[in-house]
Amino acid sequence: MGIEKITGDPRKVKDEPKKGRSRKQRKINAVQILYETCKEVFANCGPDIVPTPTDIERLKAVLDNMTEADVGVKPNMPFFKTREAEGLPKITYLHLHECEKFSIGIFCLPPSGVIPLHNHPGMTVFSKLLFGTMHIKSYDWVEDSPRVTTPSVNSSKATEVLPAKVRLAKVKVDQDFTAPCNTSILYPADGGNMHCFTALTRCAVLDVLGPPYCDPDGRHCAYYRDFPFNYFSVEGVKVPEEEKEEGYVWLEERDKPEGIAVVGAPYSGPKIVI
Fold first, then answer.
1. Cβ(186)–Cβ(263) under 8 Å?
2. Which of 52, 118, 148, 150 has a 20 to 30 Å separation from 233 between CA atoms?
3. Contact 103/209 with Cβ under 8 angstroms?
4. How many CB atoms sit inside 10 A of residue 258's CB?
5. Model pLDDT, residue 8
6. CA atoms in the 13 A half-sphere facing the CB of 38
7. pTM of the predicted model, to two decimals?
8. For the chain, how many helices (H) and strands (E)?
9. What are phi and psi of 6, to 5 degrees?
10. What string of DSSP letters covers 140-159?
11. pLDDT number for residue 84
12. Closest C-alpha to 127, from 102, 153, 104
């Protein structure tokens, strides 16, 4: 291979590598790194297709190191203020990015804000609590139990109207989390695919969904009401005696709870370059 002949002003040729090094040394913001990582991690994924363990850890590591400063969110923003006499506090969603493979967004919850119990069909979800204290309760379906069951009333326990259909679920998480803490991950059939968030203080949650909800493709958000295991009895369904009280519940699908409002607002943090 020959050596290309250099023409033109040699001083300009000498300056070009310096400019190149300057561009390479320019710092990439954390949000851009998150986007680029998501693009690679979810490239070959889809509904019910989970990223490889290596990719899971790779994306988790990026999120674990992110803070509210990386996304330009602060607890003193108007999103996190509680206004009295307006029912449940409004929750604000800041949209960063969405494509057919994944979405990135931030949920801003005032104190006492609630994201009711809901599912994530066919999704792998990463949730990073950026600041605040939040109670998370999550469930997974018990796979070897009947998928849809009509229960019988246990008169010594049940005080509610008998639901038409319920399904058995096992409690995965039921505890408070305070930032800084590690990113939580849920999977299509494990990790607490159905969860409920309750803000004990002002909270911000950075969420990555792969793939995002899509009604035309059958990935709509379903909401649930939970009942203690002992409220009902179902023939042929048995669970360990020591776990009956807290380890299992019956879930009934329901309409979106009244009074829950999630509103969108412009994202003003570092921009993503597509």
1. no
2. 118
3. yes
4. 8
5. 40
6. 28
7. 0.85
8. 4, 14
9. -85, 125
10. EE-TTS-SSB--EE-TTT--
11. 65
12. 104
Neighbours of 160 (CB within 10 A): 12
- Residue 173: is its pLDDT beyond 60? yes
Give 25 or 107, the one with higher predicted confidence. Answer: 107
Distance CA 264, CA 246 (A): 36
Q: Give just the sign of the alpha carbon dihedral 62, 191, 255, 90.
A: negative
Query: What are phi and psi for residue 38, nearest 5 degrees?
Result: -60, -40
- The rounded distance, in Å, linking the Cα atoms of 130 and 107 is 10
Name the residue among 167, 174, 185 with its Cα closest to residue 123.
185
What pLDDT does residue 237 have?
A: 75
Q: Which residue has 């057919």 as its token pair? A: 100
Are 202 and 109 contacting, i.e. CB atoms less than 8 angstroms apart? yes
Amino acid identity of 133?
T
Whole-angstrom distance, CA of residue 91 vs CA of residue 256: 15
Distances (CA, A) of 221 to 121, 193, 224, 245: 8, 12, 10, 28
Give Dmax (Cα) for the chain: 93
Tokens of 198: 């309750």
C-alpha atoms less than 13 angstroms from C-alpha of 214 in its C-beta half-sphere: 16
**Helix, strand and coil percent figures for the chain, each rounded to 5:** 20, 35, 45
**β-strands 167-178, 248-254 pairing:** antiparallel
Instruction: Show the tokens assigned to 243.
Output: 């776990």
DSSP structure string for 164-186: S-BEEEEEEEEEEEESS-PPEEE
Write out the DSSP string of 96-154: EEE-SS-EEEEEEE-TT-EEEEE--TT-EEEEEEEESEEEEEEEEE-TTS-SSB--EE-
According to DSSP, residue 64 is labeled H
Q: Over the stretch 127-170, which tens digit does the pLDDT of each residue have?
A: 999 999 999 999 999 987 776 666 676 655 555 566 778 899 99
